Fold this protein.
Amino acid sequence: MNSVIAVYPGSFDPVTNGHLDLIERSSKIFSRLFVAVLRNQDKDPMFEIEERLEMLRQTTSAWPNVEVDSFHGLLADYARRKEARVILRGIRAVSDYEYELQMALMNRKLAPQVETVFMLPAEAYSFLSSRLVREVARLGGSLRGLVPPPVEERLKNKFG
Ligand code: PNS
């Protein structure tokens, strides 16, 4: 089989079990997977970039072909630098599709040799997002089973 390098970009603020489900599935398909955290984001993040990278490293260490990284600027340029043929994105519900379609087509314009591949997470995570995780954590709800233990721990430390 040809070796195919893929990039899985995102904010990962924080990584959820939905992200990890996708990483596990895709690690079985692609020869190498770069999980790439965007550095230059306008959003005010809950976790600093180094913390997000640390949580990703802690939770993806079981997969030898998965590498945690970060990038500045355009995703298309990053994918090119990594010689990736695939940008991987997760789609949960139809509502994700419009935004993802716009991004995929823009990325195709910027890097025609890179294909965006969409994958579905397990149904149990189809409602899960980092935004909801942040909200539930702020309001003191349980996130057991929705985020990995190191993330649960950090959220507990932040919000008590
Ligand atoms: O997890 P997110 O926040 O939905 O991820 C969005 C991300 C990081 C994939 C997207 O914002 C991105 O690729 N930003 C980099 C800048 C870029 O390349 N913009 C043009 C792509 S349409």
